[in-house]
Amino acid sequence: MNKAISGFSKLSKEEKIKWIADQYFSTPTEAIALLKNYWNSDEKIQKLHDEFIENTITNFYIPLGVAPNFLINGKYSTIPMAIEESSVVAAAAKAAKFWSTRGGFKATVINTEKIGQVHFIYKGDVSKLNLFFVQHKNKFFSETESITTNMQKRGGGILDIILKDKTDLLPHYFQLHATFETKDSMGANFINSCLEQFAKTLKEEVQNYSLFTESEKEIEVVMSILSNYVPNCIVRAKVSCPIADLEEKHILNPQEFAEKFVQAVQIAEVEPYRAVTHNKGIMNGVDAVVLATGNDFRAIEAGIHAYASRNGKYSSLSHAKIENGIFTFWLEIPLALGTVGGLTSLHPLVKLSLEMLEKPSAKELMQFVAVAGLAQNFAALRSLTTTGIQEGHMKMHLNNIINQFEATDEERILIQKHFRKNAVSHSAVVTYIESLRK
Question: Which are the catalytic amino acids?
């Protein structure tokens, strides 16, 4: 069968599905039925989902859960989390409850600066280019006034523009490096529109600059685009309490626990192989809230991991210390988030999630996200340094295996009872289910 097709995007959704089912599935009717089973029964909502991206055929559901009891800066919140990985929401909720009786989480936004760049090639006299930029810098601001007016009314706009000489990295490579404040919007469209105008202004003004030779006027703009690396858009989240207050069911010796916990963090600070997994645990919490609130988790991931490498070596995003009998655990991460624009005003569950968070500003959302990441990291490190990570994880894994084998209610009760006292593994569960069914 020929699986190439021309004009696929012009087909109706029904026609797309039929073509896919006929081309790729041995039982096309079953494939079509499954895809349609995940359509939303509300036609208006389904149409909305169909228009989020191109070539939609159905909806791919991810569970939306909540982690309650987060005491943040003296106020309780319930945090929405969209994620498919078992135990993440449970771990966040458990960490939230643990710290709710020990002073809660403290969160602070340090800065909210975002970055965009015009990348261009210039083969002339660098001193002339520097003089040109100094003399025309105000022009870049004035030429973007029609774009920045509304943002300025909200307290945002272009913060600064500088010329960067990058010829030590690539021959003839320069940048217009601009910083922005976008208030409650993530600001991608705003930033990119400003950058494209900068590029247009650059090319036009260069042609009229008398000090440039004709060859020097041949500046080549390669691209104009925002950066997802925002090392000056930072939020800090922290928990702290006297070591004695750490005592609980699994922490019978608080001093020993605190010291071991700090050592675990220090290992992640110096060992990249551990740091990647350590930071992945933080991102379990971060991504889940970012996704639930309609933000771009791929951009957040890229920016945060770049930040983890900012000193030339990939390292832990979180840190811990013991000082004068006080245990402190904290992280600082870059987060460029929005609470207006994009999916925030379109996706019904995104709107619900933001309402659950009491309609936060972008700064407040940064705090929620950072706290979720810290909570997730604390839960993972507490397990790793006490009972081991597999105890809680395998309990959730057991449910997945039970569902995979479509266990009856009676079988489910017997399986769960059996594995309260026996180690959970896929083969052990399968063997036990088979023995029940003999």
Answer: 85, 280, 296, 393
